[in-house]
Q: What sequence folds into this?
């Protein structure tokens, strides 16, 4: 039996952000469950969940949410055999790397493994920049971590374990590719008992809109698309696999009884791909008469969502969905390999709104070859989405994440140096601190377009649907928000009230 500690690092956010997503570490909980099911002793150090309201200012407008590095270090037992580090987002590398190094200075005789989307996208670079890491786990980690723990327990070699990049003196050795888990229904449910889950639930912390005690879940793995700005294909591959709808509903029912949850957030890359699957899932929830809401905060495909589906979505509890056109320019959609038809998405959006589902639109501006004309076409479509009934919008500036096609292209052109500044820029939420990788526009120009896009969307939204002004005020007064935009607005008002109160005290 190997003794394993899995570390979820503190979350890093911009000091200028109004809302941050502090979520339970579902990936780490899945890994822990697999290890425990194979008779290994496992514990989780969830740096965020242990104190999500604690903030540490790092400088450069960056804040760590969660316990400090020193506190993490104290929670790792001396007799640990294997320490695994979760690195899902490259934006966390600027804090994860020093954390690994600090722990490595004390536990130099232990085995260190990194896993998650960042490590999968940049394994050699991670090993190069973090000397204490012994290996990187590529892709899905349930089977790989179990085999590593087995090897440690039996004192055997790692070289025959698939899905690894191993440090061997000054060389990095990649083992054979690991096959995707074929039946995801066989995956052991997350070990939530090893995580301070109730802390998240009590505070209403989630990736989506705050609808009370929100449980994260995965309904599918993989995404059949290959957008050039996305690093997910490296992690999950392009084969979309969905869970059995009855088993999924069983798990939701279990969480209602065990944790008294009121909402489910599905963290899938692309939850709805097959129309038949989502209809079956909705009918399963409806038949059980579960008093619960659910959301798709990560985005979904609109092709499978029409007048047949949206009434079922709402009746089964779906209240929020994200559509991600990314651009309103057909030229840009082709360029970034975003296989979406804007007119069909508009039709789908209208259907969702008619069924009283809150829809958020995700937009990215500043792609390397984007032009002013492309952005103005996006602005035009934002107005169309707003007039069609979309409730909310997120406008971000393109950032080259490791593993994406655009990132590789920029690296080859010598436009990314992997400096500390590069990693820090990935962590910024406020656009004023982002960097332009667009050949045709500066950071200041993108800043202008960002605020223009947000302004155009919400102005037209409230102009054509004035009742939403009343609803927004009501939601702010009752602290019951229907969108991430309302949550951000509530935080802005809270900060203004604080500053006003502080000014009154000093006068």
A:
């Amino acid at each position: 039996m190997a003794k394993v500690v899995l570390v979820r690092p503190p979350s890093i956010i911009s000091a200028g952000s109004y809302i941050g997503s502090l979520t339970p570490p579902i990936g780490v909980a899945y890994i822990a469950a697999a290890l425990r099911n194979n008779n290994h002793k496992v514990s989780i150090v969830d740096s965020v969940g242990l104190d999500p309201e604690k903030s540490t200012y790092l400088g450069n407008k960056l804040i760590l949410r969660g316990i400090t590095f020193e506190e993490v270090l104290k929670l790792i037992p001396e007799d640990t055999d294997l320490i695994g580090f979760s690195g899902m987002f490259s934006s966390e590398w600027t804090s994860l790397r020093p954390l690994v190094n600090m722990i490595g200075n004390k536990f130099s005789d232990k085995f260190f493994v990194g896993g998650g989307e960042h490590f999968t996208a940049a394994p050699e670079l991670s090993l190069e920049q973090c000397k204490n890491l012994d290996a990187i786990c590529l892709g899905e980690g349930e089977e790989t971590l179990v085999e590593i723990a087995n090897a440690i327990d039996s004192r055997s070699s790692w070289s025959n374990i698939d899905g690894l990049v191993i440090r061997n003196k000054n060389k990095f050795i990649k083992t054979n590719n690991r096959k995707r888990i074929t039946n995801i229904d066989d995956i052991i449910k997350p070990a939530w008992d090893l995580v301070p889950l109730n802390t998240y639930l009590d505070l209403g912390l989630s990736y989506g809109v705050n609808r009370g005690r929100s449980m994260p879940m995965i309904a599918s793995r993989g995404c059949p698309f290959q957008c050039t700005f996305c690093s997910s294909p490296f992690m999950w591959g392009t084969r979309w696999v969905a869970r059995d709808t009855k088993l999924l509903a069983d798990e939701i029912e279990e969480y209602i009884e065990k944790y008294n949850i009121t909402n489910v957030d599905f963290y899938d890359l692309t939850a709805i791909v097959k129309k038949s699957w989502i209809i079956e899932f909705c009918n399963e929830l409806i038949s059980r008469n579960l008093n619960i809401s659910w959301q798709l905060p990560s985005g979904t495909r609109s092709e499978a969502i029409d007048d047949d589906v949206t009434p079922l979505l709402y009746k089964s509890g779906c209240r929020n969905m994200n559509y991600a056109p990314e651009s309103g320019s057909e030229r840009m959609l082709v360029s970034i390999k975003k296989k979406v038809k804007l007119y069909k998405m508009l039709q789908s959006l209208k259907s969702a709104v008619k069924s009283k589902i809150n829809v958020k639109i995700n937009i990215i501006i500043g792609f390397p070859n984007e032009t002013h004309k492309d952005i103005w076409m996006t602005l035009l479509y934002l107005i169309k989405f707003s007039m069609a009934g979309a409730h909310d919008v997120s406008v971000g500036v393109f950032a080259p994440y490791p593993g994406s096609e655009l990132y590789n292209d920029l690296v080859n052109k010598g436009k990314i140096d992997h400096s500390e500044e590069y990693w820090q820029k990935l962590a910024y939420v406020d656009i004023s601190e982002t960097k332009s990788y667009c050949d045709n526009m500066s950071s200041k120009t993108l800043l202008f377009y960002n605020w223009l896009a947000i302004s155009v969307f919400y102005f037209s939204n409230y102009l054509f649907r004035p009742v939403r002004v009343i609803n927004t005020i009501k939601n702010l007064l009752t602290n019951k928000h229907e969108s991430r935009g309302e949550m951000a607005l509530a935080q802005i008002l809270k900060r203004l009230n604080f500053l006003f109160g502080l000014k009154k005290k000093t006068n």
